Amino acid sequence: MGNLENYVRDRSSSFDTLYVVTGCTLEGNKGVVYDNVGKAVTIPGGYFKALLGYKKAGTVGNTGIQGGYTGIAFFFKNEAVSGNDYMNYSMTISELEKKVDIDFFVNLKTALPSLSDKIESTKDNWWNK
Predict the structure, then answer these.
(1) At a CB cut-off of 8 Å and minimum separation 6, what does 80 contact?
(2) pTM of the full predicted structure?
(3) What is the mean pLDDT of the chain?
């Protein structure tokens, strides 16, 4: 996961703004561990990250045809991921929203009603570079 964090940091410099949502799911959890005061803490079953980048000039990936926006998402089961294999876990924002039942960028529909679905459901190859 450290490689994914470095990847996100590297990509952030390409945008005017990069929104990053990170979280976990409890579905398929791995049991519990106990914190320093003895409280049980559930071990997540998976982790996710959703990225929505904005470039006013429209010069990054699909931003020129998507109102300045492009996005990507990732989902990992709570298992070891080696090297740079994180791209094998990439998906569209819409796919991740269905998987975890969360609408990540709710204001996008208001800001760009005619483009929001396209932005969230398009896998922009720029992210793979």
Answers:
(1) none
(2) 0.91
(3) 93
